[in-house]
Amino acid sequence: MSEGTVAAEFARARADLYDLLSRAFDGDTEALAEALETGVFADFAGVFPGAPDTAVLTRTDLDQDALQVGYDNLFVVPGPYYVPPFASGHATEPSEAYDSDAAYHEVGTAGELFGDPAESVAALYDRANFTPERGEGIPDHVAAEFEFMARLAARQATGDSQPSEELLAVQGEMIDHLAWLADFSEAVGSADDAEGVYAAVCSFARAFVAWDREQFDATER
């Protein structure tokens, strides 16, 4: 197997995993339930360090209705368990010239919807001619960002030659941007204290992105 073929296979595997994570964080409970049942997360977790205990990620006793309730409580309905599923919600500084009337957000503080992180990631989408189909129209929604990473990896997998400098630059900037997953994962871990599935998926995603960044830094920067 040639070096180019190996690289393409690796990129396809990355694309598939990012796509699965995108679907899971977009509320696709069918895709998540299937991944839990087939052990996809557990299989991937053996590849990179820092992945969570895979026992939760192989549960088969949760139906789609239970997963949907958990998803809605965490990522849709403002309330005691709500965690903003977008990067702006975890920013530490208020965005410039922004006023928000969101139920979970206090005016004049950080964490607004469509804040500076949304603007910066939307600029990356424009550079790659990408329009997210997931994430409810919120550019920095975790589902949209993982969808973008899946698309970038897929482009790299199908390229007939070495990826362009611009493609690599966008990937690098996007991976750097995903550092906000650390705060997101910790917040979900604190809120999802019942079933723990989404907390485990968040921890898995955080570990995967950290590993992917290491691979990218070692080969492309």
TrEMBL record:
Keywords attached to this entry: Chaperone
Pfam families: Nitrate_red_del
InterPro entries linked: DMSO/NO3_reduct_chaperone, TorD-like_sf, TorD/DmsD_chaperones
UniProt superkingdom: Archaea
Tagged with keyword Chaperone: yes
Record-given protein name: Chaperone protein TorD
